[in-house]
Amino acid sequence: MSKKIRLPETDDGAILFNVPFPADTKDLKQMSPIVIKQNYSIDYIHSFGQDSPFFAGLANGKLMGTRCNACSYTYATPKGHCMNCGNETEWIELPLQGRIHTFTVCEFGSEAFLKETPFILVLVEFDEADTLFLSRIVGLDPTKASLDWVGMKIKAQFKRNSKFKPTDVYFVPAD
Amino acid sequence: MSKVYMVSGGVSKFTKARPDKTFQAVVKEAYDYMAADLNGFDKSVIDNTVASYFSDHFTRQLMAGIMVQDYLGLCPLASRRIEAGGATGGMCFQSAWESVASGRSKCTLAYGFETMSHVNTWKGNEFIALASDVSFDYPVGGFYSGYYAMMVVRHMQEFGTTVEQMAAVSVKNHANALHNPYAQHQMEITIEDVRNAPMVAWPLTRLDICVMSDGAACVLLCDEETAFKLSDNPVLVSGVGCGTDAMRMADRPHGDVMLLPHESAADYKDLKYPGIHSFRAGRAASKKAYEMAGIESPREELDFIELHDAYTSSEIQTYEDMGLCKYGEGGPLAESGAAAVDGEIPVNPSGGLLACGHPVGATGLMQAVFAFWQLQGTIGKHFGDDTLQIKNAKRGAIHSHAGTGTYVTVSILEKGA
What we know:
Chain A is mainly β and about 180 residues long. Chain A is built from 1 helix and 8 strands.
């Protein structure tokens, strides 16, 4: 398979004020489609609701999970109610050390994160928890991705200026 | 419960962008094809419709379904819209099935579409990533290819699956598509081509991942009486199943395998299931559909499968969920050739999502149309080439899948009596 060589394209274009129109309306079926650009931008007022203490925890250098009162199932990503038995959970502090359960190196991404590529996503496992936690890891060479990374001991670090996003915490290799 | 038959279907050519028509007119192409494939079809036979489209963001149009309904001249008939992420098409098919099976409808039209070309690829990836928890997952780097990459890394770790086995799926499906004129990407490629393509999310390259598309598909489902009035070659829908799993991959349990009849607990004594290496929803959907259709050994009792291969890795994981092999044996199955058109259990003879494209709301219905043509033995007529016709195909399955395995549907289609 031969590789295509292409000039990168962007979405900006000319503003169109007029188009040619045929003398005979029968020719309108042959007309090229008129394509215009429409902007769409919104600020959402998003509440973390019952999960809010997790984000307050990040702002204070703590990783908060939840544990079911009834069956002790422990969530590394908080859930207000237990998925197994339906009971309300309690907040617990998670250890700041875990292991890489799985990972990927994103060379591309959604538009919002494209400028941050390449970045490494990890699902973190903790001894004390039944579920995992999605985060980023820094300090690994993204060009050296390898299955050997699975199981690696890693530790949490926190941003000094909290942005009240899950990225206020990230991981680095523990050793 | 009424027996439900599929009597006709149509698909628009899937392509990167359809600026020449609005979505209603693209659905009309698929609808007209479906209608023309029946002798003397009169739309007055339709008494109900179900619309399938995934994203209001892509369309930037709320209530797009009703705009298709009026364009097709189907007002004031009953209608509803179905949304289930990537499985929207499969879910729509089953909703149409329910309408007829319940006796509420004698003839239901399912129409699906997506216009993904309204935004660039990376904005499109952002829209799709909003189908992940926006408190905990999306802000970390929301990117579906990244999510599936993490799932297959765990599959590789757990079972020894290789990137070459994944690439074999891409080679097979793109080559099948050479004979399917509806496909977006028809390519003769090698395993090396797949591995040398630009890396998107390790270990998935651009050729491990399906593309975004504009397209539409239509399916007509009827009760027995109506089916045989409209067609002398209808196809029975003999089983439907649907399963779910937690949105956040982090929340997926690590428990016991949900067994199919040909498996035993001893097969999996050290396996924590589904973890993030397998799709529990796919297994649950398969199990239900097989039970309803009376299938005990799917690899022997199915003649072909059209499954949701948005990623090469998902096809391998889905072989296992659907019981074509045991968990962990999907990689070897992929490279064995058993899933080739002339193999023991052809999978994605159409080229699948990898080659046909994935205009989300249309995709699951496209699978139904291709499966229907296989069972009618009319692939040659519709593709202009009968290379992909599975010889003597009597029973096939279609499998539709959403966001890291959150919703999965499996439906069984059989050659009519």
